[in-house]
Structure formats: structure tokens, C-alpha cells
Design brief:
Helix content is 35%, strand content 13%. By secondary structure, it is an alpha/beta fold. The chain has 2 domains: 137 residues, Aspartate Aminotransferase, domain 1; 224 residues, Aspartate Aminotransferase, domain 2 (3-Layer(aba) Sandwich), CATH 3.40.640. A 7-stranded mixed sheet has the order 4-10-9-8-7-5-6, with helices on both faces. It has a 4-stranded antiparallel sheet with strand order 11-12-15-14, covered by helices on one side. A two-stranded antiparallel ribbon has the order 1-3. The longest helix is centred in the C-terminal third of the chain and has 25 residues. The chain is globular, with a radius of gyration of 22 Å. The structure holds pyridoxal-5'-phosphate. Pyridoxal-5'-phosphate binds next to α4 and α5.
Length: 405
């Protein structure tokens, strides 16, 4: 295929200060992979790290690896804390405010349980009518445990401000809507919630690693997020939990496992929490998957997250611009906001036959995804996408809509 990339796109790729980062990933060249918001690409350094962990740390040193080389920061016991420290920088947190392990669902439970127990008599949890199902399910399950004593109130995420009322005890929202890609005003909403004494739990599934997040700058109370989406930690990578330092004394730990104990090997009868967010590490750390995430996060070590954000917006702007003529010709409706402040790192369209369209796109090697009922979702990962990929994706969409073989 000859390169006929429009010169403006060529220029954008030539000026891209992050273009060298693509070399740090295994990016399949035969397809355009636009699903890094669901499972990020493999960082090239991860397989060697996994082999080393399996062969040396597990194969040779076995149980000694838990404490071996602690001074050189190679002990398994300290691994969750080291991963937490790398992650903290990306989400505007202090290292001692982040715990890494378990799934996002389980961390949502931990955060909600703590927030709801701190909310006093205000037994209303405000959440998003359209929230990702697991967030809703975890709230429902927890409420059952609490004897259904809470009201689970929901509203559209475009109308949160009006629903912040003094009877609300806690809120649970996802900063970037997984379907529409709409990004909420986390700062403004958190500020208003704090004025009203509402505890905030933010789900950063589509935020962490996608753009700069500033949890402490926003005054957030709790947050959770995924390791396998924009953080590229691999399938089922450990998730994270953020608990603001000001709550460390007051926030109870309900999943009080021994690995969050102040001194696990003391084998004490009674639970005493470890310092900081380490108390939210429940059981034995998932060393294999934590090691993959640890290595994957090194890719971010020299990345200016503001530059990453600029590139993300340039990619999504370009996609929206190139798709624009197609929205006039076909029943394709942009649902992602044009306003930069309200956009995450994905672009979505409604199409009455979205499922079938996405199936054909994937057959053509344009790998986005379909979300019920009618959403075509295209995720852009500024660490490894080029404007040339955007153009290829749009050509693929055009071909599918035109019914080209
Ligand atoms: C992907 C995603 C999750 C995933 O939760 P898991 O426990 O990792 O399966 C949770 N919340 C949101 C908003 C998501 O997009």
C-alpha cells in the first residue's frame, strides 16, 4: 500500500513528541487496534520480566523471594507498594494513598464500604443511571449486606450537580463514561460534594493512564481504577484503590486481610492496620500479574502526562474530523462531546446496526468494540497510536458503511 496520508496528518505525526513510545509496545501492524480502553497493548519489556520472575524468582528462589533483596527493591512483599508509587504519580496521589491489588470491582466494594460507613445518618448513595454494571452491582450487594438500609439513587451523569443534595451521603461516578466517552468535571463536582459533606468515590477505569488525573488537586476522597486498560498491565491486571490521607485514621478497613496488617508475620490474633493505604492490600499479592503491571508502568516514567493529553485530543479531534462527512451520509451520530474538557480518550458513535457494523470492522482489521444497545466505540491510546492509524480506521469505517467487500 502506498502512503497517501494527507500532509497535515503526516506533519502531526512528524511533530509528535511521543512518537518514540510506540517502539516500546508490541503493536500488531496488520490491524488498527482501537481497544486499548478495554485491554491495552503489550509493552515489549513485559515478557522478559515475566520470564525472569517465573524462572529466577519463583523457579530458583521460591519462598525466599518474599523478602529477598528488599534493599534493592526486589522483594515480593514490597511489590504492591512499589507499583502503588509508580501509579500515584499518574493520578495525582501520594504513594501512601494508593493500594494495588484485586480487581476494580473488589476495590469498589472496599471504597464504598468505607465511604458508606463514614456517611453517618445520610443513607443515600448517588450513582450514575448508566454506570458500568459492576459499579452498580457492587453497590447493590453491599446494600444487601447492610440490610437494604441505603437508598441507591441514580441520575444521568449530565445532571449530577442538581442531584447533589444534603441528604446524599456518598457518590459513586465514573469520570469517563465507558459508552459515550464523556468526561465529567471531577474537580467541580468534588468541590461541590465536599461543601455538602458528600463523600466521593471516583471510578477512573477510563482515566488512569489516558490523561493527567489530579485526585488530591480535586480533593477526592476515594477512587478506584483498572490496571489493564490505559495502564497496559495485561489481562486481569491488578486494580488500584485511592484513599485520601486525611481519611486514613477514620476510614475503616472491612476486608481486613493479613497482608494489610501492620506486621503480617507477627501472626497476631487481632487486626492492626498497616500504615497508609497498604492496609487495603487484602491477601497475598498477585506477584505474576503485579510484576507485569510494574514493568508496564515503567513506560510512563518519562512521559509528560500533559503532552499525552494533547496528543490524545489531537488523535480524537482528527478522528472526529475525518468521520464528519460519513455522519452526513449514514445514520451515524457522534455521542462523544466536541468540547475538549468533556472528552476522555475514546470516540463513540450511535448506529442503528452498530453490532453488525463493528463485526465487519473487526473483520477488516479495525478493532474497536460494540457496546449495547447501539454504540460503536473507538479507543485511542496516545502512547502507541499515530494519526496515520486514525486515517486507516476512518477508511475502514467508510468501506464498511459503503458495503465494500
Ligand atoms: C472496565 C471497568 C471496570 C472493570 O472492573 P473489573 O473488576 O476489572 O472487571 C469497572 N468499572 C468501569 C467503569 C469500567 O469501565
Amino acid at each position: 500500500m502506498t502512503s497517501q496520508l494527507p500532509t497535515d496528518l503526516q506533519q502531526l505525526d512528524a511533530q509528535d513528541t511521543l512518537r518514540h513510545k510506540r517502539d516500546e509496545f508490541s503493536v500488531p501492524e496488520d490491524i488498527v487496534y482501537l481497544d486499548g480502553n478495554s485491554l491495552g497493548c503489550l509493552p515489549k519489556a513485559v515478557p522478559a520480566r515475566l520470564a525472569q520472575v517465573a524462572q529466577q524468582e519463583w523457579g530458583e528462589h521460591l519462598i525466599r523471594s518474599w523478602t529477598r533483596n528488599a534493599e534493592a527493591a526486589q522483594d515480593w512483599m514490597g511489590l504492591p507498594d512499589r507499583v502503588a508509587a509508580k501509579l500515584a504519580r499518574l493520578i495525582g496521589a501520594n504513594a501512601n494513598e494508593v493500594a494495588v491489588g484485586d480487581s476494580t470491582s473488589v476495590n469498589t466494594f472496599k471504597a464504598l464500604a468505607a465511604a458508606m460507613s463514614m456517611a453517618g445518618e445520610r443513607r443515600v448513595l448517588l450513582t450514575d443511571t448508566e454506570n458500568f454494571p459492576t459499579d452498580l452491582y457492587m453497590a447493590q450487594g453491599l446494600n444487601k449486606l447492610l440490610g437494604d438500609t441505603w437508598e441507591l439513587r441514580s441520575c444521568l451523569n449530565t445532571e449530577i450537580m442538581e442531584h447533589l443534595t444534603p441528604d446524599v451521603g456518598a457518590l459513586l461516578f465514573t469520570e469517563v463514561d465507558y459508552r459515550t466517552g464523556r468526561k465529567l468535571d471531577m474537580k467541580g463536582l468534588t468541590a461541590r460534594a465536599r461543601e455538602l459533606g458528600i463523600l466521593t468515590v471516583w471510578d477512573l477505569a477510563h482515566s488512569a493512564g489516558a490523561f493527567p488525573v489530579d485526585l488530591n488537586g480535586c480533593g477526592a476522597d476515594f477512587a478506584v481504577g483498572c490496571g489493564y486498560k490505559y495502564l497496559n498491565g495485561g489481562p486481569g491486571a491488578p486494580a488500584f484503590l485511592f484513599v485520601a490521607e486525611r481519611h486514613h485514621d477514620a476510614a475503616p478497613v472491612f476486608l481486613s486481610g493479613w497482608m494489610g496488617h501492620a506486621d503480617p508475620f507477627e501472626m497476631a490474633r487481632a487486626y492492626a492496620p498497616a500504615a497508609g493505604a497498604r492496609r487495603y492490600v487484602v491477601g497475598t499479592p498477585q506477584v505474576l500479574s503485579l510484576s507485569a503491571l510494574d514493568e508496564a508502568l515503567n513506560v510512563f516514567s518519562d512521559v509528560d502526562m500533559h503532552a499525552l493529553r494533547r496528543k490524545s485530543l489531537s488523535l480524537t479531534d482528527t478522528f472526529i474530523r475525518l468521520m464528519e462527512p460519513l455522519t452526513g451520509q449514514y445514520p451515524l451520530t457522534l455521542v462523544t462531546p466536541l468540547n475538549h474538557e468533556e472528552r476522555g480518550s475514546q470516540v463513540s458513535y450511535r448506529h442503528p446496526d452498530a453490532q453488525q457494523v463493528m463485526k465487519k470492522l473487526i473483520e477488516r482489521g479495525i478493532v474497536g468494540d460494540f457496546r449495547t444497545p447501539d454504540i460503536l466505540r473507538f479507543g485511542f491510546t496516545p502512547l502507541y497510536h499515530r494519526h496515520a492509524d486514525v486515517e486507516r480506521a476512518v477508511l475502514g469505517v467508510r468501506a464498511v458503511l459503503e458495503g465494500q467487500p
